[in-house]
Amino acid sequence: MRSASEACPRALAWPILFAVPHRPSTSLPLALGLLVIAAPLSAMAGADAPAPAPVAAPAADAPPTSAADDAADPAAPPAPASVADEAPAAPPTAPANEADEAADETPPAPANAEPPATNALLVLPPRVDGPYVGGMIYAPGAFVRVRDLETPGVFPGVGGSLRAGEAVLRWLTIGVEITGTLAYQGDQRLGQGALIVDFGFLPLPRLPLSLHAGFGVGGGAVRQQGIAGRSGFGGAVFKGAVRYDFFPFAAKKRPRRGGGFGLGPELGWIGFTPAAAGRPMSNTVYLGLGMGFFFGS
Question: What b-and-e string marks burial along 189-213, b requiring 16 or more CB atoms within 10 Å of the CB?
């Protein structure tokens, strides 16, 4: 496209050329003179004309614009965004009942989960459980009768025992015990011992209170200072006792296993019965402290 400055000289010259009669001899110099006069005028008119606005190349992906859009002023600033468009999005509202949702999201407890603390007493393992070994030291008071010596008083002294066995049921223990006693009364000395099969019964399996009964064989003798020889007794032996065991370290050392180290008092009786009326015999009452270890089942 040619500008107005290039098109104006010829546009002004063509009417002059066609208006002048075609005379070869006189019209040509006149036409040239008019062209010389018209050229500066057309240049001045072209300088005063406004320059056309540059046309921007359309974008490759932009949709075609209408004539109204082309006529719009390109220098006009874009319309400001509304306050509603610039406002940040509102945060999501909290759930109506967060406690219910938290309860729903709580994973289910595994099948082997531990029971609540309120039922701790119900799930504690038994302490009198499995094989056991132990012993006892006790203070006896013996009543003795023999053939050749007068024994009017009680024989105090010291005694001890060793035991081993097993808790075959939650309420029953069976074991073997070896016991011995050494006691003095005046110038007399008593020595006795026995091998006993012991049965223990637990009335309340969760409570380490046990009742014991046993039988076996044994014997003993009394010696008196200044008298040669001894006078003795022997035969069947019977036993009865009640014992309570404490397990001070089991809750910490064996919280989920049965058994443990236990100790506690024992009150009992050991009787060497006479074979007939008036025959030698011995009845010993004792209070002792027993201790032992149950290995658990």
Answer: bbbbbbebebbbebeeeeebebebe
Instruction: Return the CATH number of 126-294, one of 1.10.3720.10, 3.30.360.10, 3.40.190.10, 2.40.160.20.
Output: 2.40.160.20
Question: What Cα–Cα distance (Å) separates residue 294 from each residue in 59, 99, 235, 254?
Answer: 93, 48, 32, 11
> What residue ranges do the domains of the chain occupy?
4-48, 126-294
Taking the model in full, what pTM does it have?
0.58
Q: Which helix (H) or strand (E) holds 135?
A: strand 130-145
DSSP 8-state code for residue 204:
S
The closest alpha carbon to 137, from 260, 266, 243, belongs to: 266
Look-up: residue for tokens 């992906």? 61
Smallest CA-to-CA distance from 265 within 281, 245, 236 is with 245
pLDDT higher for 51 or 234? Answer: 234
pLDDT reading at 285 higher than 70 = yes
- What is the helix (H) or strand (E) element at residue 201, kind and residue range? strand 188-201
Interhelix angle 4-19/27-48, rounded to 10 degrees, is 150
For residue 219, what are its two tokens? 């014997």
Task: Label residue 170 exposed, middle or buried (CB < 10 Å: 0-12, 13-18, 19+).
Answer: middle
